[in-house]
């Protein structure tokens, strides 16, 4: 298991390259939720998403340890940007396998960081096959989007900052911290650092109904596939790994699913009331809070706003 010291070292390693993002509240949303919500705004992070943290922590170590002369990964967007950005920092070429259906804004951003985009069909099998081909052709080192302890440790630093800034010392600790779940890297890291720094705080995940594999895996104890994949939350379509599932089952209290209309409503609420841009995947935890008010009434709640890389030409409202 990743120790507190490993997560602290990850934070020290990436600190020169990232923002310590601000935390916002909104009275209208608090009133609607019946709770006190604190939004950790990773939509203002480098590359527009929390994924910069895990990507940097992994790539910086690959470079430091001379593990390879290039980097590769597969991603629908934000991890792709994170790895491309991190590879540029250390001067290594990056080869990113992306589904052809990934938002154009994310593909353009990856290319803008100097990485090569290899498009594939929008399935996990096609993504993994693409990465294997890249590794065979270039000798690149894989930085997996979530099945990698170095990535998980980096992702944990978002909740670490949230707890340090608003849930320790003179501050009342959070009752609950929520994060979305796709492959489980952020959720795993969030659960671990919360256990270390604020052990009385629950960690709960939000998941789209249209990519509901994590809730099935959480219940069965083995990695499951979603019954169907159809959701606006394009960043949450991946299944868990054995690594992330083990951490989630040990340290996460519950996983709550929400529909696409509920995701869109939460996304729009943040745009309208907080005046900030978030992407659909980012809105899933807030949608879960609004859907289950009785579970969160009167609580102090932290929510990781994971990113703001939305295609402005294809808004769902």
TrEMBL record:
BP term (GO), one: D-serine biosynthetic process
Protein name, as recorded: Pyridoxal-phosphate dependent enzyme
Domain Tryptophan synthase beta chain-like PALP: 15-307
Needed cofactors: pyridoxal 5'-phosphate
SUPFAM superfamilies given in the database record: Tryptophan synthase beta subunit-like PLP-dependent enzymes (SSF53686)
Highest taxon listed in the record's lineage: Bacteria
Family (UniProt): Belongs to the serine/threonine dehydratase family.
Pfam families per UniProt: PALP
Molecular-function annotations in GO: ATP binding; carbon-sulfur lyase activity; D-serine ammonia-lyase activity; L-serine ammonia-lyase activity; magnesium ion binding; pyridoxal phosphate binding; serine racemase activity; threonine racemase activity
UniProt keyword terms in alphabetical order: Lyase, Pyridoxal phosphate
